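Final paragraph of the annual report: two paired records, presented back to back.
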Amino acid sequence: MPDKTFMPCWQHFCCRRRNCISTVNICGAISEELGLSVDQKATLGSAVFLGQLVGNFACSGMDSFGRRKPILVALLGILVFIGASAMATNFLTIAVLWILAGFSVGIGIPNFNALTSEVSPAKWRFLLNAVSQTLFPLGSLHAACLVYRYAPDLASIGQHWRRIILIERLPNLIFLVLGVLPGFVESPHYLAAYCGKQEAKQQLEIMASQNGIPLTCPDFDVEKTPSGSGSSSVFQRVGTLFGRHLWATTVAVSFTTFMLNFITFGSMYTLPTVLSEVDLGMSPAMSLVVATLFDASGFLTGFALERVAKHKTLLVTY
């Protein structure tokens, strides 16, 4: 059984689709208020992703910090930096704060994904991933409803963008509090590799107690990783990925991921602009609500199909 301790779901409190829904309009509102140039407006739209890129690269050398600490630091960073941007009054300050918020997202998501995999049995991993992914559109729904409340036409959002940003921090704050109390587990894999066998067994005992079952894992031996060997292991892993056996797979997966993100986020960023200029028989903000409901149904359908189809078949279908 998977561990029942609270696990912060990144797809809810720092949802990328939610950013796609609101960033275009909020950047436009900030541009109008501060009189930004086109280049400055584009920079704001890219600032979070630039920070996330740096954060993702930084994660490659963060194994020695564990999983729990980077997640809590990321939660705090997103809350502070995005919240502070709602009170900033100039372009440079907002851009820097958004880059730092993106950096927080960049170090948080990989650690969350790793922790989810490391504390759950193999047969539960697809289910847990599907549930967390379903919260992407729920985050979008939260943002769409918020925009509908203040600017249903998507054009008058300039009067309310600071309030919308601050209200969107409430889920972030809730998850940060829950991340501290009751908290969530550390990865036994990390503890075994960097802290020692006894620490890993203690964490496994906590997980077993939370699941209401006795600890039945056999005794195991571990080779403790030296604390200063993180950088060398990173280069070794990268070398393996681009070695003669895996380079083709690495390039294919990387290119496919790039194209899917380019197309998906490109279309999502244009959606608010398109909806504000066409008449679909409902307000533009309500159209976003409908779109996110279909988005959620897709994740649920994928979970149902996983029971009858192989993962590779689902990827090709997608």
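The closing record of the year follows.
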Amino acid sequence: MPKVNLLATFSPDRYNKISINGAQGLLRLLCLEQGQSVPLHKHSNGDEYFYVIKGKGKIKIGEKEAEAESDCIVKAPAGVLHQWKNGPQRLILLSVVIPPLSYEVADEATKMEFV
């Protein structure tokens, strides 16, 4: 099984989006060097959840801005502008995008069957 530190790659030019084990776009690592940012954007058809794996950065969601550090979980709802700004150290985020229409399907898929 791959470890996050082995998957994380950084670029001096811009942040990196890294797909995890072939997960097509819905699950990825975001790797930011010092001072890098993710541009202000939105996902019209999906909520984006972030888990801060390493480092600390500022997240702007709509009009609100807050600091998030290791072990924080943050949600950017579908259709709401959001942006990450990194500070003086590397920042590694786990990003999961979930289309709101799939919540019921996801709940069904995660039900455990006991044997």
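Strands lie at 16-19, 27-32, 37-41, 47-54, 56-61, 64-69, 73-76, 82-86, 91-98. This concludes the annual technical report; the extension proposal builds directly on these records.
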